[in-house]
Amino acid sequence: MPPSTTFDEPPEFDVGDRVVTTDPVGRRLHRIPRGSAGIVVARTPERLIAVRFDSGRVEHVHPASLAYEQPGADGR
């Protein structure tokens, strides 16, 4: 289980963490829908999280728009 954070700060994600979006992200016409899964590939100096989504797209996402992916029945 990831360490807890204060309520006013989003969690810190590390490279390799599996995450899902809690809001749609990206440009209006090419948004990645809420609930899309991906893996953290980098953290930017602006405190954004670079995520490679399972669709293959990479987006820089604010940490407040991400949550840790819950393990499924297959253990992932």
List its traits.
mainly beta, single chain, SH3 type barrels, 5-stranded antiparallel beta sheet, 5 strands, 76 residues
What count of helical segments does DSSP give? 0
The CATH superfamily name of the domain at 18-68 is: SH3 Domains
State the name of the first-level CATH class of the domain at 18-68.
Mainly Beta
Order of adjacent strands in the largest pleated sheet: 4-3-2-1-5
Q: Count the strands?
A: 5
Determine the CATH topology of the domain at 18-68. SH3 type barrels
What's the Cα radius of gyration? 12 Å
**Mind telling me which CATH architecture of the domain at 18-68 this is?**
Roll
Helix content: under 10%
| SSE order, one letter for each helix or strand | EEEEE
Low-confidence segments, given as residue ranges, are none
Judged by helices, strands and strand pairing, the structural class is mainly beta
Largest sheet: 5 strands, antiparallel
Shape: globular
